[in-house]
UniProtKB/TrEMBL annotation, chains A, B:
Organism: Sphingobacterium griseoflavum
Keywords: DNA-binding, Transcription, Transcription regulation
Gene3D superfamilies hit by this protein: Periplasmic binding protein-like II, Winged helix-like DNA-binding domain superfamily/Winged helix DNA-binding domain
Ranges of residues in domain HTH lysR-type: 1-58
Entry's family note: Belongs to the LysR transcriptional regulatory family.
Record InterPro entries: HTH-type_LysR_regulators, LysR_HTH_N, LysR_subst-bd, WH-like_DNA-bd_sf, WH_DNA-bd_sf
CDD domains reported for this sequence: PBP2_OxyR (cd08411)
Pfam families: HTH_1, LysR_substrate
Listed name of the protein: Transcriptional regulator
Keyword presence, Ribosomal protein: no
Amino acid sequence: MTLVQLEYIIAVDTYRSFVAAAEHCYVTQPTLSMQVQKLEESIGAKIFDRSRQPVVPTEIGEKIIKQARIILNESKKIAELLQESKGEVSGELKIGVIPTVAPYLLPDILTTFLRRYPKLQLQIWEYTTERIIQELKLGKLDCGILSTPLHESGIEETPLYYETFVAYVSEASSLYQKKMVTTDEIADKKLWLLNEGHCMRGQVLNLCHYKHNQSLEGTFEYNTGSVETLKRMVDINGGLTVLPEMSILSYDEDQLGQVRYFRSPEPVREISIVTTPNFVRKQAVNALKNEIIALVPDRFKTKKKKEVMGFEL
Amino acid sequence: MTLVQLEYIIAVDTYRSFVAAAEHCYVTQPTLSMQVQKLEESIGAKIFDRSRQPVVPTEIGEKIIKQARIILNESKKIAELLQESKGEVSGELKIGVIPTVAPYLLPDILTTFLRRYPKLQLQIWEYTTERIIQELKLGKLDCGILSTPLHESGIEETPLYYETFVAYVSEASSLYQKKMVTTDEIADKKLWLLNEGHCMRGQVLNLCHYKHNQSLEGTFEYNTGSVETLKRMVDINGGLTVLPEMSILSYDEDQLGQVRYFRSPEPVREISIVTTPNFVRKQAVNALKNEIIALVPDRFKTKKKKEVMGFEL
DNA sequence: CCTTTGCATAGCTAAAATTTATAGCATGAC
DNA sequence: GTCATGCTATAAATTTTAGCTATGCAAAGG
């Protein structure tokens, strides 16, 4: 068994074709076919069922390919270790960010960060928490920025900042008259919510003491994945919603007039940068972490950890 | 970079000698030297400092070798996957067991287990919890049998049975007159304890409400790693100790006469079999698990999980 | 100063990976 | 039915590489 053979079977699995796989490996098709055969011979099992078109992995082949991806992933880390030791913050950094954080955090960060580390190539995906964890474990992402604690083994969390939630109320709402609101006061109101899969949905439901999916019918009408949409729904259709504090930083006075902070104990979410435990490019992630911490206003760092909300996915 | 090259650098690291490493890899020294050089050239960094005798890895070399061990470890799993898929329970199974469990569980298990799976080669080490976790993560052990919960990320626990602790008192002790004892009653007595590093020490200290290392001087005199020694100390020097229930299964009537169960809530420890999350030889471990569960008396399986004691290492 | 020990280098050989060319085998078009 | 077409396997030739033997060279020990 060689690393090259493992690369080849991964390519065949990816492209479901020996010809296409060979092209992408920059070798000829017979070369690739031979190596795959040799590997199959050496382990004593067929990895691909070539009688079907397109070729598909066998049952055991699936498992072997999965393991092969792990092996090659670990192999790549040797090169990363070397970059790391040179103090170079370079190469690709693949980041997953939840949609309730991304638009308020990344635009500010990116320009300064990329100017400071010109050799770094960022790739960013907006994914839900669940997907970020999944892709981290598969090695498809290098790090994630999301709300913690996750209580997920195999994921290391480094808190970046703490962010309160605020209510955003329409002028017609009875709460508009109040200076501050309590979590109880919003529990029975018409509340615009993110759709399922967003950790913030769970947090908001928690803070107003709802159980998931319970008595939502009739009370809530429209689900979206975007915090901006929530705000607009309030603007146009009335009612209220809950926003992360960072989303209101760019609001003008009119908009801020509709924002109501919560009375103590304020609901707070913890935003962390997460990696897998044996991730080696700590310098690059550290650089990103420091950039974020430097840019986030100070009051986002002083919230007490004890106030942080739990949530379920 | 090839898997063979990684094997070679691991061998050089292990034996701190190119000559010895070559022998153990069944190649000549020039062959091995050349491959190490080629690897160093391809990654653009020296892995070993050959100017010292014996050769030592460079700083970056240390990291590369560590990663190389991970890669080869993951590579081995492909062969294991295949055995696994054939339904064969075979090969080596390296098990770590804590010393307060091993002598009461393993002797009974081993003969029947090995008769059922003749192709399996068991290697067993008596290690402390800490060491078992460490070696599991390094891939030097396949599984561990120890007291849980560990609250350790990267370790998966599967409970096997629940075992109460019992007091073992000398005839001279005031507690000898009682039919049952409470945890409070033993707190101020002369208590023979295991030495540090054993999880059971922590559990026993917990159950009699001691903080670690606090006010032990004078009260306790002798530390040992063996439960049998604790019992003998009581037999010969008086006082009392706490034993795991399984250790008294083989006691005769005289000895049982010195055993006192605890009043409810009984202190219970959970014994689990643990592996790393991406361990692939689940069938072999499962076979061992089933063998143990089948052999352990039923009452060890009915304890409620809620009663299980926590502990620190 | 000579021997021993240990790694590196050089030249050679055998094995293995890769290439080009071609065969075989389905599948769908006509 | 037969003829392309698209895919993978096989064969033979070639290049690359891993490994071997022999030897060199430097450092440590007697």
